[in-house]
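The methods section describes the discrete structure representation at length, but only in general terms. What matters is that the chain and its backbone geometry are given together, residue for residue. Nothing conveys this as quickly as seeing an actual entry. For illustration, here is how one protein appears when written out as sequence plus structure tokens:
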Amino acid sequence: MSKWLEHIVAGIQAMLHPRRDECLLCKQLGRLQSNELRLCQVCMSRIPWIQDVRCLICGRSEKCSDCLRRKHSYFIKNRSAVRYDDTMKELLARYKYRGDERLCTVMGYMLYYAYRILSSESGTDLSLNAEAGSTNKIITYVPVSERRLQERGFNQAEQMARELGRRTDLPVVPLLLRTKHTDKQSFKTRSERLDDMERVFEIHLEGMKEVLCTRASTLVIYLIDDVYTTGSTMNHCARVLKEDLGAEVFGLTWAR
């Protein structure tokens, strides 16, 4: 009888004093707006979701000069979840540079938003040249150098890719290797970025074997990265995937 009373009392206390969770962004205790994102209402309202795509290639919410200047694009299109404003820069810094890996769930959910945008556009979720039954869809990611991996302890693009794979039930396969270390691209001019990315990536042979063993008539690859800046990294990775595997490549990035 005493255990039954304790259970009743605990239930009443739970109703009178609901659990207060910590928001992952502001770290304040309170009722969360989204259990999936674990964010409070204020932080949810500060997320700059990309809802109006202006550039059909890179997915930017404004006119894009980078896509106009690019001579050849090896990826079909890219879609991003959010604009890379000051709030999102701080969020990425906490995750990528200060090692707050709890944010992986938040970032992965945001990336899933970009995936749904891409999927909703006609002809992009499946292959452009084949029916669904003969299309093999795979998620891969932009690799980091061994030096970067040692510094951070993880590859943020890989973590996002695996979070997306969990939500979509698509296989995540490492298909690219980074052959040389490059300095931070955000400090460089557009021309320096383009020159710096030459011959940086090559195909991952073990990953390629895995794909070829199960390959259908058409291979569609979703290429994951954290931030799309000029598109040079995305384009060089897509070139390797297209030339070595004959894949149709779609970019999915967390921010633009």
The chain has a mean pLDDT of 82. Residues 104-120 form the longest helix (17 residues).
